[in-house]
Amino acid sequence: MSPWLRVLLYLVGAPLAGGLLAGLDRKLSARLQSRRGPPLWQPFFDVKKLWHKENIVVRRSQNYYIFFFLLLMVFTGALFFAGNDLLLVVFALTLASIFFVLGAYKASSPYSFIGAERELIQIMAYEPMVLLTAVGLYLATGSFSVQAIAGHPTSLIRSLPGVFLGLLCILPMKFRKSPFDLSSSHHAHQELVRGLTIEFSGGPLAMIEVAHWFENVLLLGWVYLFFTSSPLLGLAAAAAVFLLVILVDNTSARLKWPTALQRVWLATLVLGFGNILVLSFR
Amino acid sequence: MPGFKQSPWVLHYDASSCNGCDIETLACLTPVYDVERLGVINTGNPKHADIFLVTGGVNPRSREVIRNLYHQLPEPKVVVAVGACAASGGIFRECYNISGGVDTVIPVDVYVPGCAARPEAIIDGIVRALAVLEDKHRAMAAMVDSIDQTLYGLAERRDVPEILALQKIAYQSEAELYGDDSLPGLQETLPEIEAEFDRAVFGKAVVNGKIIGSIRGHRDGATARLTRCTVHPYFQRRGIGRRLIGEFEKSWPPEIRRFEAIAGHKSTRRIDVYKSLGYRPFKTVPFRPAIEWVHLEKPRP
Fold first, then answer.
1. Which of A211, A247, A249, B195 has the greatest number of C-beta atoms within 10 Å?
2. Torsion of CA A145, A150, A156, A162, to 10 degrees
């Protein structure tokens, strides 16, 4: 498949798949709590409704940041699925998150500030592991190009089990799931008042939601990258990781930020760095 | 259809009373009733909500909170009063501190009966509110298409808190323009604007019961001095400000022979609106290092 075709498929497929995954998430969470849950299409209904709501802002410029957050998230995914440089993907992803944080800071309200500060702590917590993942994939395959990594003949999970487990530890943070949903969560309506997103309503809130769908598809793409030699196993692994994240979300409480930071950094050091140490001495 | 029926997000506030309806409302979220199957999310944030669900009677403390939350809900929005107390004050009606139901503060669309209201009744109330929500959205869409339905008139004393809230929203863009958060329009407090109401005449532009534009004028001999012309950011660039100033001029008695308007020197859009109405700038007065007041004048036609 040519890179352009893959990007086109991503641009069309990612919002659809991301929205369905979000719907599946809510359905499964409801079943885990022995509730019936909303229909599978619920996230699409929500986004459609938000487009028609009034857009109340504290500062009008806060919405531009959210627009760039969405744009960069789409761009990051496009880079990844086009088979581009993995480091570029990592940095573009970080830049997207920073735009989101800036948007929350721009709204200048205390809750928004707390959300933004917690998001910065989260970025600080997961960023080393994201970089180590890129480094690990390079050490295992000799290339940063996603195309080359995906074309590697053996499953990378064999040489990078620690890096993969380390990535698993930070995924709840990226998916905004417990125990690491410090800055914003789909369930924390009362105590976090939706953290980062508190001052956004209407269209921008819909954009945040859609950007999150794109991000989720990208993250599952990362998981898939560890199993590219057998695509079926890769898809199964991505699905399993998604289900695991939902299960953990429903069975664990939110951690305080120092604990979250310590645990994630410990996992990064032991699993990620340990794995890379072993690889470099082999 | 824009999907309001499939995705009602509820903001829930307990104004006072015994908490019975409060508990029954939360019972709707439990596995037995599970309102999430209808797409309902119980949000803690008014800016994300569509339905404002209030339980309990209103007392002086909760009055301000209810009004504040109501104005923070984005349009279209619906208010559901749950239980006897929220409808009329209920058993607490005669209490010294209860002023009655929720409709003494904000307009209520759906009343849910009961003491305490049963979860089934509350769910029914939410479903009824959805139909109202759809209607309001249709009316709002029509309103944006034909902004001529805006009503212009003079403000009353009870409009003053809403005008202040509008002013704080509308002046945010001004604060960015001048790089100064301490503009007089942003710093004004409720007692100050209420005192101002005794000295000045306030004009308002109303859509769907909501004030989207305001202006005020001071009388000085045969001159009326117009200041603080604001329009809600959502309705800007649609000619509301122009119409508002035009209608406001007409409301002055015939002995007023001259209008004077004041705007900041960087607020070019505001100045252009005045110029298009026949105003001519005649002096600038420095106010702060970053701000100069531009005075514009126009003889009464």
1. A211
2. 60
Nearest to B75 among A54, A61, A205 (CB): A54
Half-sphere exposure of B237 (CA within 13 A, CB side): 3
pLDDT in tens, B13-48: 999 878 899 999 989 888 899 888 888 888 888 889
Q: Which residues contact A282 (CB under 8 A, 6 or more apart)?
A: none
- Verify whether the Cβ–Cβ distance B7 to A46 is below 8 Å: yes
What was the ipTM of the complex prediction? 0.85
Closest-CA residue of chain A to B4: A49
Exposure of B198 by Cβ count < 10 A (0-12 exposed, 13-18 middle, 19+ buried)?
exposed
- Alpha carbon of A214 to those of A80, A104, B13: distances in Å? 12, 20, 34
Q: Enter the tokens of residue B300.
A: 């009464």
Prediction pTM value: 0.77
